[in-house]
Amino acid sequence: DQDAGRRSRFLIKQILVVKKKLREQEQLIDSTASDDAEMPQSPKTTTDAPSTKLSPGVSRKKLIKKQNL
Predict the structure, then answer these.
(1) Which in 26, 51, 60, 69 has the greatest CB count within 10 A?
(2) pLDDT score at 37
(3) pLDDT band at residue 27, thresholds of 50, 70 and 90?
(4) Of the candidates 51, 24, 46, the residue with the CA atom closest to the CA atom of residue 35
(5) What distance lies between CA 69 and its chain's CA centroid?
(6) Residue by residue, what is the 3-state secondary structure of the chain?
(7) In this structure, what is the dihedral angle of CA atoms 31, 35, 36, 37, given to the nearest 10 degrees?
(8) Could you tell me the pTM of the whole model?
(9) CB-CB contact of 43 with 32 (8 Å)
(10) What is the pLDDT of residue 62?
(11) Residue 68 in this model has a pLDDT that exceeds 70
């Protein structure tokens, strides 16, 4: 019973964290959308941020390999 309680508490915490992050992202999107009303691309860049975070590291490694050659 204790393990189940711990697990559910942990999951609830995770859900709250995710909700908080989503809310922060929505606020970012709202602020960028209002700042750059003429630029429809700005909301896209904020929502795509998590997926693009991985690519710079990959490209950097490739660049380093190219430089070493």
Answers:
(1) 26
(2) 54
(3) confident
(4) 46
(5) 34
(6) CHHHHHHHHHHHHHHHHHHHHHHHHHHHHHHHHHHCCCCCCHHHHHHCHHHHCHHHHHHHHHHHHHHHC
(7) 90
(8) 0.38
(9) yes
(10) 63
(11) no
